[in-house]
Amino acid sequence: MSAFPATRLRRLRRTDGLRGLVRETRLDLDAFVMPLFACPGEGVVRPLEGLPGIGQRSVDELVREAGELAALGVQALLLFGIPEEKDVEGSGAWEDDGIVQRALRALRSEHPKLVLVTDVCLCEYTSHGHCGVLRDGEVVNDETLELLARTAASHVDAGADAVAPSDMMDGRVGAIRELLPETPIIAYSAKYASAFYGPFREVAESTPQEGDRRGYQLDPANAREALRECELDLDEGADVLMVKPALPYLDVIRAVRESFSCPVAAYNVSGEYAMVKAAAARGYLDERAAALESLTAIKRAGADLVFSYWTKDLARWLG
Ligand code: PBG
To answer: Are 99 and 40 spatial neighbours (Cβ–Cβ below 8 Å)?
Structure first.
C-alpha cells in the first residue's frame, strides 16, 4: 500500500494551510544575527555598493539602527569596526577607546537587552590587511594569539556578550578562553578561504595588500579538515562552532551538525547576499523568495543560528 496510486505526496501540498502543518524547517527570528559596521565620525551613514542596505555607520547612527532592529524583534548583532587609522600591528583592535569598544558602550547602555557579539580579528585594523602579525610575508601564528585575546578581552570589558574569533590562527580559542573563562565563544571554526567575502572586504576595508588568506583559512576542497578544526576549537573551549560561508558549504554544516552536539552557526556571507541583490536589481530573481529559500536551506542543513545581512528584512518579512 506504499506506492502510487495509494500514496500521493501531493495530498499534503494542496493548500498553504496543509503545507504549513507539515513544514519541517521554519525561520524564527530569534536564531538570526545582524552584522553591523561601526566607523568614526558622527551622523555618518555610508552606503557601499557591494553590500546594499548595509554600509558603515558612526556610533550614533549605529545606536539608532540598533533601535530599529530591536523594535522589529531582532535579538542579536555582530559588530565589526573600521578604525580611524590602521597600523602594522592592528592596535586599533584592542584599544580601550577603539571604534568597536565605543560602539559597544553606547549600544550596551541604550539597548541593554540586545545580544552583542563581536568579530575578533585584526584584518580591519592592520595596514597590510592580514588577520595577524606579518613578518617576511608570513602571518606569524603564536605572536598573533596574544593580540587576539587582548582584543576579545577589551570587547568584553566594553560590554560584549559573546566573542567570535574569525582569524583562523591555531590555538586562538584557547588563548581567548584563558583570559575569558565566562564569555561565550562563537568560533569561526570552519572558515574557508572563500571568494564570497569580496563585498565585505570593501565595507570593512580589509583586503590584504599583498597575498591572500589561503595560508590560514581552510581550503574549499576540504570537509574532513573542517571537522578537525571544530574538534580542536571545542577542546580549547568554544561554545558554538561556525561554518562560513554557508550556501556553498551546506554539506559541511550538515557534517558538523551530525558530528557534534553543541550549537552550530552558519555565516551567510556578503557574496551570497550580494549575488541575490545584484540579480534582483536586474530583475532576474525575486529577492525575498530567493533570500527566504537561502535561509531555509541553511537551517535545513543543520544550522541553529545564522548570521545574515538579511536579518532586518527577515524581521519585516516574518512580521
Ligand atoms: C574578518 C572577517 C571576514 C568576514 C567576517 N570576518 C573577512 C575575511 O576573512 O576576509 C567575512 C564576512 C562576509 O563576507 O560577509 N576576518
So the answer is: yes
**Within a 10 A sphere around the Cβ of 210, how many other Cβ atoms?**
9
Q: Is 312 a catalytic residue?
A: no
At 255-288, the pLDDT tens digits run 999 999 999 999 999 999 999 999 999 999 999 9
Q: Is residue 2 assigned to a domain?
A: no
* Residues facing 306 on adjacent strands: 32, 266
Residue 1 in domain: no
Please give the number of the atom of ligand 1 that sits closest to the Cα of 270. Answer: 15
Q: Kindly state the percentage of the chain with pLDDT values over 90.
A: 93
Give the mean model confidence (pLDDT) for residues 62-77: 98
The C-alpha cell that represents 134 in the structure block: 606579518
pTM greater than 0.90 (yes/no): yes
- CATH number, domain of 272, equals 3.20.20.70
Total structural domains within the chain: 1
Q: Which of 86, 113, 191, 312 is catalytic?
A: 191
On whether residue 46 sits in a domain, the answer given is yes
d(CA 278, CA 275): 5
Tell me the residue range of the domain where 61 lies.
26-318
Predicted pLDDT of residue 1: 66
Provide the pLDDT confidence category of residue 228 given band limits of 50, 70 and 90. Answer: very high
Q: Select from 117, 139, 206, 270 the residue to mutate for testing ligand 1; criterion: most ligand atoms less than 8 Å from CB.
A: 206
